[in-house]
Amino acid sequence: MFDMNLNGNGQAERGLTPAVNGHNGHNELNGLSGHAVRRRLDLTVIIPTRNETDNISALLGRLAASGDPFDVLFVDDSDDSTPDEVRRCAAAAGQLRVQVLHRPAGERGGGLGGAVLAGMRAVRTSWVVVMDADLQHPPELAVRLAAIGRDREADLVVASRYVGSGAASGLDGRMRHAVSEGTIRLAKLVFPIRLGPCSDPMSGFFAVRRDALKLDTLTPNGFKILMEILVRHPKLRMLEVSFVMASRLAGESKASQKEGLRFANKLVALRLGTVVRPIARSAAVAPTAWLARVLAFGLAGLSGLVVNTGALWMLNESGGLHYLLAAALATQVSSSWLFLLTDAVIFRRAKPGTLAGRAAKFFLLNNVALVARLPALALLVEVAKVNVLVANLVTLLAVFAVRFAATDVLIYRRGVPTPAAATSPENRPVPGAAHRQPIREVVDLGTADASVLTSSRPLARYLPYRYVIPEVASVGSQIELPELDYFRAQWLGNEAEIELRVGPTGDRRLHRRAQMTQLTEPPAACYQEHFGRLGANFTIRFDGTIQIVVSPRLARSPHVVYTNVLEALLRFVAVSRGVMLLHSACVEFDGHGMLISARTDTGKTGTVLRLVREYGARFLADDMTIVHSDGTVGCFPKPLTISRHTVQAIESHELTSKEWRRLRVQSAIHSKEGREFAILLSRLNVPIMAINAYAQRLVPPPKYAVDRLLPCQVIRETTVRSLFIIERGPFSGGEVSHDEAVRLLLSNTEDAYQFPPFRQLSPSIVLGADDHVELRRKEEQILRSAMSHVPVRRVSTPDFSWAPEIARLVARNGNGNGGVNVNGHVTVALMTRGHVPDGHPPIGSNGPVPR
């Protein structure tokens, strides 16, 4: 029998020890049953009990019915025979290992929440599920909550009565319903940001990854411990699962007036304990430097007020412009002044990105503030009859704090790694890492109302644009998709494997935040933003033919539809067909297929263009390559996005003068800095898909077919003979092991899908019998098989000079300096010595660099 003693502080002392009867006044945790046949789940279900004798048998029976072996811990504060009943029923609990921790009278601090905390301190499993013993929480859902959290890389899974098909029907009477809804609204009123993403912060049914909690920060008082977890741990990645609350089987509810007072006291204590913490934490990092930045920013802001007021006076009074137009123009003048002052004086330390990128973010921030200021300015002038200059001053002062916080965090954020460090393994993003969660994630286990998916009005059957991507899928669309233009197949009928239509999707209500809902009946994923059916929404159904419906607002930006919806889906559809869409470039030198992988915005496109133009490579892809498990790859020639550093690889005569002028603006906005700013913006509670769609329409991304930019030959397929992983950093290079190469390739592929809502959409994709966990496993298998005999080299340069380095290596091997190994693959001997300018032979080489 497995026993665990607890010391007087409730801390667990692990080990196989004799059972403790509890007469010494300490808590006891007695193992009662369990003979695991199947592999035991890394899960403990914690059930706080108080006088629940009549519920134990049915509860354990329903938990055991799943057939899965896991741990069950009853933390008991009873004065009746509940512990004895647990011991009696444990023998018939099948694969369950049942334990009881009885807290004697006088040691029951914190009430129900204190019991849960004592249980969390006692267990050692990775996942913990908390539920009540009265069977209002369906026991069959306990294991599934933890499985959903593990598979979706979440920290917290809340079983909610108020999302999807969930319901609080188990509450007795209107008064109980009113009290429940009232406490939720009160809590969200006090904590609008921290509790905002959760529809049911009062739920007593949830699964949590134990290591994600700092147990010492929890001081529960009553039965609402989930609320405290959400408040104390605002960076937990949370999702919600719908459930129907049943009626209590036996016993009496523990809700009372006393518990209500404890809840109110706890809510006040939590608010007082967190109201000044963000400011204190920010200042505590380096108090002197932080205060100095605030003071300097304030002084710069005062000078900006002078500049803005002067410009406004000149434009409005002297120039005769309307005061709103004059205010908008004055903002551009003062923004120029403030940026120069801020960049040169206030933030003198190492700064992220480029000067142009920071300027673009700074002006965007100030103009967003301008949009917020103009209505207030009009209200003060037209309604309150305030002088224009005074009203302008008032609105500028009102946004000062927000501007400083946004400038400090979004533009000159601290701790930005260098380009080399950013691509090192230890600094790459880890799935499931803590982050802001602007998009609510919901798993609806019930049967969804059809209105959640699309309107009842039938959509047009005709699909005017048709594409066939070999080995991947056929696509029929009501929207022209320029990224798939190479795969146009008008001979294809209306019966495509993926159908993309335009129509109303989502419900008609306004939402406080965007929401991604995974539906199980029918299998589907539904994304909707703040403005109901006016938002940039989409729905994907996976039963039979994959059907995508995008809202009219989203359909106006085909690039966003393809990049953020269709391509994310194609990635997993490809896996279900036995191939992989790898985020990499691919060219061929005389039958020598070569993959080039890099993180997004590194310089991969420019490298490919130089290899084609200067070294005669044949083109397959610059962004996405179709990889087969046998090492052959297929082309995916999407239009190339021309960023600022890619422009250098294009000769001026390839584009018209008008295109070049437009390209200067497009490449600045659709650059690495612009993308980073958009990702930072996506962490806020904004309708990011709609903003992205509007931005893409206002300034379309600079995309051109490769043969529009330079003469080249596009080939359909080749066999991979070598792989180069390019990075920015000091000149260096070296061999990369097979396992490391697979990890880097998967990481670089994942990096291409940073923009929302891919992180929320991918776990909702179910194709046939495969969920996203199985699809990702198969994806890795395909990649491992394809790369099993391919030599991999890492090439790092600080000046975008990967093309001559790669061409030099391939040429050396072709001239007999490297040779071909016994498997017929090129053996690449990468130089790790310092950089050699183009046209000069490297040290120890036998000739000039090929041009």
Short description:
The protein has 851 residues and is of the alpha/beta class.
Protein described:
By secondary structure, the protein is an alpha/beta fold. Helices cover 39% and strands 17% of the residues. The chain is built from 26 helices and 29 strands. The protein has an 18-stranded mixed sheet, with helices on both faces. Strands 19, 20, 21, 22, 23, 24, 27, 28 and 29 form a nine-stranded mixed sheet that branches. Helix 11 packs across helix 12 (388-398) and helix 11 (355-383) packs antiparallel against helix 13 (400-411). It is globular, with a radius of gyration of 31 Å. Mean pLDDT is 79; it is low at 1-27, 33-37, 275-285, 414-435 and 815-851.
List keywords for this structure.
disordered N terminus, 18-stranded mixed β-sheet, 29 strands, globular, 17% strand, 851 residues, 9-stranded mixed β-sheet
Low-confidence stretches: 1-27, 33-37, 275-285, 414-435, 815-851
Morphology: globular
Number of strands: 29
Rg, rounded, reads 31 Å
Mean pLDDT: 79
Total DSSP helices: 26
Helix fraction? Answer: 25-40%
The biggest sheet amounts to: 18 strands, mixed
* Multimerization state: single chain
Instruction: Provide the β-strand percentage band.
Output: 15-25%
Cα-to-Cα separation, first versus last residue: 76 Å
Structural class: alpha/beta
